[in-house]
């Protein structure tokens, strides 16, 4: 079955590498001495390593804006737009954006920078590490149209990190109702936090009830788990494994990117 993935990516089962931006202006850990120049240099290093390693796409996020906001300050998306504007000509693969955790600002950033897709929490109410987390998917969908973002693909986190769905519905019901009511372009299935393994049985349930909607394995992808995950997932998003020593806080390691992409090509 042909999906929008076939139009965006030239391969089946694409692997999207994460470009984790350092803390941005306004974030608690922002490096004022290094400033925006240091953030841009870091992003350039990350996308160079990811592309040389052979990833099929890149997702740019403000991963180190901890602790996250569910309604971000304007400076966050503005800073990310500056970074992407500086490196845009060097991006040779399809890319997406993720302003953690603000769906509206993520769409704005995608429209402004030409990103092909957005990953976010678009639907549901959660008890999370960031407090009670609410969404308004109908309003967000209309905002996408209002800012001429109809071509931006929306990847819904169906099992959000660091959060639990408030309603007492099982995953199969949640998947079916999300697909029917919200018409996502993709469903992302995650572990507890960045880098945490995604349970294969969870992937299987989502895939069985997602219909024609592509399913992404969103965390914990490793060479030894990739083949099993890709039995059910249509694509993978990789961040932590690509880092030096597999540590979330480290820079991307070209050798680790090449290792995983070699496995990815063998299982397609």
Annotate the secondary structure layout:
Elements: H1 4-8, E1 15-20, H2 35-53, E2 57-61, H3 74-87, E3 95-98, H4 103-113, E4 117-120, E5 126-128, E6 131-133, H5 137-146, E7 153-159, E8 163-165, H6 171-182, E9 186-189, H7 200-209, E10 215-217, H8 223-229, E11 235-238, H9 254-267
Parallel strand pairs: 1-2, 1-11, 2-3, 3-4, 4-7, 7-9, 9-10, 10-11
Antiparallel strand pairs: 5-6, 5-8
List the keywords.
single chain; 268 residues; alpha/beta; TIM Barrel; eight-stranded parallel β-barrel; three-stranded antiparallel sheet; 17% strand
What does this structure look like?
The chain is an alpha/beta fold and 268 residues long. It has one domain (4-267): FMN-linked oxidoreductases (TIM Barrel), CATH 3.20.20.390. It contains nine helices and eleven strands. The protein has helices at 4-8, 35-53, 74-87, 103-113, 137-146, 171-182, 200-209, 223-229, 254-267; strands spanning 15-20, 57-61, 95-98, 117-120, 126-128, 131-133, 153-159, 163-165, 186-189, 215-217, 235-238. The strands form two sheets. It has an eight-stranded parallel beta barrel with strand order 1-2-3-4-7-9-10-11, surrounded by four helices. The longest helix has 19 residues, at 35-53. The protein is globular, with a radius of gyration of 17 Å. The two termini are 15 Å apart. The model has no long low-confidence stretch (mean pLDDT 95). This is BtpA/SgcQ family protein. InterPro entries: BtpA, RibuloseP-bd_barrel. Pfam families: BtpA. It comes from Microbacterium salsuginis.
